[in-house]
Amino acid sequence: MGRLDFSAGCVVMGVLNVTPDSFSDGGQFFDAAKAVERGLRMAADGAAIIDVGGESTRPGSASVSSDEQIERVVPVIKALCEKIDVPISIDTCKLEVAKAALEAGAGMINDITALSDERMAELAAKHDMPVVLMHMQDTPATMQTEPKYEDVVGEVLEFLLGRAKRAEDFGIAKNMIFIDPGIGFGKTLEHNLLLLRNIDKFVAADYRVLVGTSRKSFIGKLTGREKPSDRIFGTAATVALCAASGVSIVRVHDVAEMVDVVKVANKLKIQS
Ligand code: HH2
Fold first, then answer.
1. Can you tell me the distance from the alpha carbon of 94 to that of 117, in angstroms, rounded to the nearest whole number?
2. Which of the two ends of the chain, N or C, has the fewest CB atoms closer than 10 A to its terminal CB?
């Protein structure tokens, strides 16, 4: 499996949801063969990493058992690892799923609960795997009911730095840790905008940063685009800002388009 290379700046993580109900592409890649085909396309389009998930975390979603997630993601990860050198990340907060994905060839853990289960931290440390630590207020089932912060940027950053430090205490190397403000996870439109406007503060915090804005509902609110697949240009604006601000990874559905955006925005990076 290849390694991530940040020498040119920000890179693109392709989202591959092997789910029937994801908010933007649910059902399209639920079939393993279709998911593999989509993963190969993303690799050909320039994805530096592919994030495979077997559970939707959209607002209001219910959790999916480990067995069900494993059944969905393992065949896809195995097939992709046989065919391409692009690293695969597993989008899960469940230990058994992460273990099965690792055995199938995945090389990174994307945990929207920021390693709440400490056995997940032990697993990542033992296998020297990169981890994504994401902030979320509440749980996907209820997180959009009434998100509240006094100082969203300060609180999210403090949480992430605490979790990053804890991950280091478990033996995960600093350069293996990615912090993620969790756009849309227990945040209003204004919270999301404040986090993005202040993304440089996260970049300055000494850990690599990952941001996932792709096709999310706040982009729909700003553009009036109801359909997630119509939110590509809105997504591009956020991706350009992130890349030019020094974010290391953008997590997106539209890989070919965002690879172009990142190539240009990386060259526009403002040196402070
Ligand atoms: N967003 C989603 C899922 N996983 N992981 C990280 N680290 N950051 C994110 O912003 C993030 C994430 C939601 O997007 P998607 O996977 O397209 O939808 P769904 O959860 O409905 O499958």
1. 8
2. C
- State pLDDT tens for residues 185-204: 999 999 999 999 999 999 99
Q: Which of 64, 115, 134, 144 to mutate to test the pocket of ligand 1 (most atoms within 8 A of CB)?
A: 134
Which pTM does this prediction carry? 0.96
Per-residue pLDDT tens for 1-27?
A: 568 999 999 999 999 999 998 888 777
Strand-strand pairing, 49-53 and 108-111: unpaired
> Is 166 in the active site?
no
Using the mean position of ligand 1's atoms as its centre, give its distance from the Cα of residue 237 in Å. Answer: 18
Q: Is 223 exposed, middle or buried (0-12, 13-18, 19+ CB in 10 A)?
A: middle
- Among the atoms of ligand 1, which is closest to the Cα of residue 110? 7
Q: Residue 207 C-alpha to ligand 1 middle, in angstroms?
A: 20
Per-residue pLDDT averaged across 145-161, rounded?
Answer: 94
What fold is seen in the domain 11-265? TIM Barrel (3.20.20)
